[in-house]
Amino acid sequence: MQFGIFTVGDVTTDPTTGRAPSEHERIKAMLAIAQKAEEVGLDVFATGEHHNPPFVPSSPTTMLGYIAARTENLILSTSTTLITTNDPVKIAEDFAMLQHVADGRVDVMMGRGNTGPVYPWFGKDIRDGIDLAIENYALLRRLWDEEVVTWKGKFRTPLQSFTSTPRPLDGVAPFVWHGSIRSPEIAEQAAYYGDGFFHNNIFWPTSHTEQMVNLYRQRYAHYGHGAPEQAIVGLGGQVFMNRNSQAAVREFRPYFDKAPVYGHGPSLEEFTTQTPLTVGSPQQVIERTLSFRDYAGDYQRQLFLVDHAGLSLKTVLEQLDLLGEEVVPVLRKEFANLRPAGVPDAPTHSARVAAAQEAPKEETQG
Fold first, then answer.
1. Which residues pair with 159 in a beta bridge?
2. Fewer CB atoms inside 10 A, N or C side of the chain?
């Protein structure tokens, strides 16, 4: 199982100091956070994609390329790549290039984002959102899987004998997750292609997450990729820790109360009851995260949101120390002990290359 962090790259005022970082400071902080993630032994760093204030990560592959040069083991991912408004040709080329730069330590999470105005900014219509996601991804798969592509669709100009360059590293495209909070069509899409399905799992009740994950698992089996329990699932979750649980609540409360994403809604206590937000001791985070298995089944990737709501870089790095030293080692052991035989490991480039090399042998033997 893989453990890591994901960031939305928000520039938010720290309610305890009244100061907001500059865009430059926030970008540099994200780079420092990624490098810290590797230092403390996490597996994955994922960044979102946004094209509007107060967010800064408008060019994920630029950021991930920089991080690739300064890490050795960390898997570099997006937590959203806008399959609806990005040109699939550019996605194919950008992420294949990143694969080569990072020696395969790359995957990508497709999503539609949560900002309606981004559609007209890139010449698209939000009413076409699902159709764009379906058509663009179908083209992206062909660009990665086929050397020469001739194609015609509804939303972009046709392609005639086109070859996307560079070709995917070792002939194996980046592993794809389809991220969705509320759209069953996206769970269906992930199942159809046999890709991974990632449920954000930070703002919605567990019953909703369970419903979406179960739909994906059932449809994954329907399309012949394996049993439902063999489907590749990832979950998000947000945490704030202190070794003293009461201190954690006291420290996080002003951030919760003031941050735009939380403020002026349910109380902190209500929110932590109704959603996976966990504010407390490392042991409480361990117990809450292990409980995700009760409704999502055995899954392959857990990403935590830790750098949001105006938290200072110093505080975030302290959170990563707690994750790396006290939380993730226990979760690795417990999840491994609980996982039945037959549940696949999290995908890696090396494992997928090995599987691709085995496939022709099996076909020949058959």
1. 151
2. C
* pLDDT beyond 90 at 167: yes
Instruction: Give the separation between CA 20 and CA 36, rounded to whole angstroms.
Output: 22
Supply the DSSP string of 136-196, one letter for each residue.
HHHHHHHHHH-SSEEE--SSS--EEEE--SSPPGGG-PPEEEEE-SS-HHHHHHHHHHT-E
- Burial classification of residue 228, based on how many CB atoms lie within 10 Å of its CB (0-12 exposed, 13-18 middle, 19 or more buried): middle
Whether 365 contacts 320, CB under 8 Å:
no
Are the beta carbons of 276 and 238 closer than 8 angstroms? Answer: yes
In this predicted structure, the answer to whether residue 362 has a pLDDT above a threshold of 70 is no
What's the CA gap between 151 and 153, in Å, rounded? 7
Q: Which residue has the tokens 């996307």?
A: 164
Q: Cα separation of 353 and 170, whole Å?
A: 7
Q: Which amino acid is at 35?
A: Q
Rounded distance between C-alpha atoms, residue 196 and residue 107, angstroms: 11
Amino acid at position 345, single letter: D
DSSP classification of residue 71: -
Residue 212 has a pLDDT of 94
What is the sign, positive or negative, of the torsion defined by CA atoms of 97, 101, 102, 103?
positive
Question: What phi, psi does 123 have (nearest 5°)?
Answer: 75, 25
Compute the distance between CA of residue 198 and CA of residue 213 in angstroms, rounded to an integer.
8
Task: Determine contact, residues 108/78, Cβ cutoff 8 Å.
Answer: yes
CB atoms within 10 A of CB 227: 11
Q: Computed from CA positions of residues 126, 129, 133, 135, in that sequence, does the dihedral angle turn out positive or negative?
A: negative
3-state secondary structure of 292: helix
Q: What is the Cα–Cα distance from 29 to 151, expressed in whole angstroms? A: 42
Cα–Cα distance for residue pair 79/88, rounded to 1 Å: 17
List pLDDT tens digits, range 302-323: 999 999 999 999 999 999 999 9
Sequence-distant (≥ 6) Cβ neighbours of residue 142 within 8 angstroms:
149, 151
Tally Cβ neighbours within 10 Å of residue 166: 11
Q: How many CB atoms lie within 10 A of CB 295?
A: 17
Closest CA to 84 of 152, 139, 13: 139
